[in-house]
Specification:
Length: about 325
């Protein structure tokens, strides 16, 4: 996964507005529907959504900048200072380790039902864990958190889980759809999106995660729904906003104007003498909400002049302007 700043094409000093503009511009360019001939379109769009998810969130962005999470939003492995610098070999003490007493290192750990664990030693806390030491050194070598099997042995550790962001259109989330998801291992899986699915909905794909490095069961894949940018509608919570052109004669005299919706279109009655900027609310025509219903569609009128110049209209406007003066 590339650096989120490189994916969005912004600098590390970019503010929220700049990040939002870059995401909208690239989302329209990289949307799979606009790149049907590109087999990697889905992966590119997923990468863009992951980068935006990290940088739009102040907390996640801070964690990434500090190196606490990687470009996929996963926690980075901690750096163990106990193995660096000190007396003796390259790592410090005998054998290159520092932070351990050579006389007691072999008695500081013991095996138990949960694998290799640290035993009591000088300076240990009441729970048996010494300050600054490892609670479970077995994790470092891959055999720490193994599960005890029914026969008394240890079952291999399962593979790691993976997180996938699946972009869906407003229409797909509202009406339902079937989406194909590409997993990092190259496998393609079809997922059913139920009608009324909201952004943030998380689905578990059992056994579709990373394979186990020790022959255990694979991890799980978790797919989180994310709304994709829309060419017509702008999201405002569970509501949607759009700008509709209304010809000047219709704004003055009144008319019915065809307005697109998530499912088809409706006729909006524009009253006579409607000014530009007037807002109409169509209830229940927005996105699915937490109560099982839908938000609203907010339609703002944009009064437009005729395409060709009209001498009579200009004369009328001059007359009206003179009367007002």
């Amino acid at each position: 996964m590339r650096d989120p700043y490189d994916v969005l094409g912004v600098s590390k000093s970019a503010d929220e507005a700049e990040i939002k503009r870059a995401y909208r511009r690239l989302a329209k360019k990289l949307h799979p529907d606009a790149n049907k001939d590109d087999p990697k379109a889905q992966d590119k769009f997923a990468e863009l959504n992951t980068a935006h998810e990290i940088l739009e969130d102040k907390e996640k962005r801070g964690q990434y900048d500090r190196g606490e999470i990687d470009a996929e939003g996963k926690p980075r492995a901690p750096e163990f200072a106990g193995f660096g610098g000190g007396r003796g070999g390259p790592g410090g003490g005998p054998g290159g380790f520092s932070g351990f007493d050579g006389d007691t290192i072999f008695e500081s750990f013991s095996f138990g039902p949960e694998g290799m664990r640290r035993a009591g030693r000088r300076g240990a806390s009441p729970g048996g864990q010494a300050g600054g030491g490892f609670e479970d050194i077995g994790d470092i070598f891959g055999f720490g958190r193994q599960r005890r099997s029914a026969g008394g042995g240890f079952a291999p550790q399962p593979g790691a889980d993976m997180e996938i962001s699946l972009p869906v259109s407003f229409e797909e989330a509202t009406e339902g759809a079937s989406k194909r998801v590409g997993l990092p291992n190259g496998k393609q899986i079809d997922i059913k999106i139920a009608p009324g699915t909201r952004e943030g909905h998380r689905m578990r794909l059992k056994g579709q995660g990373e394979p186990s490095p020790m022959g255990g069961p694979p991890g799980d894949a978790y797919v989180t729904i994310a709304y994709a940018p829309h060419p017509t509608f702008e999201r405002d919570g569970d509501d949607l906003r759009q700008l509709v052109d209304v010809p000047l004669p219709d704004a003055v005299l009144g008319a019915k104007v065809r307005v697109p919706m998530l499912a088809g279109a409706v006729d909006l009655s524009v009253p006579a003498w409607t000014s530009g900027g007037r807002l109409f609310r169509l209830r229940g025509k927005g996105l699915p909400n937490a109560t099982g219903g839908h938000g609203d569609m907010l339609v703002r009128v944009n009064v437009v002049l005729p395409k060709e110049k009209d001498a009579e209209l200009e004369a009328l406007m001059r007359k009206l302007k003179g009367d007002e003066g």
